[in-house]
Amino acid sequence: MNSNTYRKEGSGKEKQKFSDKVLLHSRTVVEKEGYVSTGILSHIEGEMMEIEMSEYKSFDLGNPIELTIYSPVGTQRLQSTVIGKAEGSIAAIFPARALCGLEEKRESPRVRIDHKGILHKVFSETRELSTGPETFELVEDIQLKIRNISFSGLGFVAAAGPRLETHEQLEATLSLGFELQCRLEIIRQESDGGQSFYGARFCELDEAQQRALRAFILREQVAAYYKGKQEKVV
């Protein structure tokens, strides 16, 4: 089955749509200021791509680079940045939006992590006072352990505290090497051995929060990818 699809343009011409997988194993020219090398595009996941090359030592983290990818769907020219490096390859940002014709439905990468956070659960309590009953709004902090995270949400374990209900929204503080204040909506819940595992989605992250989260996920993704490659070699 051909993974490529087509769509009609306003002019009546059909424009080819393609999956990022079509780009794999393509010869790729990598250029930085004053230096050019050639490699093979070997891996794409989310916003990260890996280019295998013998001259990887000539590139450093943070280097802005220009890529020319000679793929089965044509020559693709992209601006990118080096975000990782290991024996025999470099990792760079995969600028999907710059690729004309790339399929829009791409999964958000989910990376495993071991970080902590706090949920702030708000509830009401009515107390009987001398002047009569009065309702107070209270906040209970629930400690959580984050097990995985993506651009859209996270999975976490809550060892104690009140049960969280599906579709419930709570304020949260996530410790990710930086403090991310956000709002989460619970979308699923599982119980196992006295612990409750929850899946939640982010609600309305602002632009600064999105940038910080994106940078964090990219760092974790690159580290996990190269760690996995190293373990396979060993």
From TrEMBL:
Residues 142-218 form the PilZ domain. One of its GO terms (molecular function) is cyclic-di-GMP binding. It comes from the Bacteria. Signal peptide: none annotated. InterPro entries: PilZ_domain (IPR009875). This is PilZ domain-containing protein. It comes from Paenibacillus nasutitermitis.
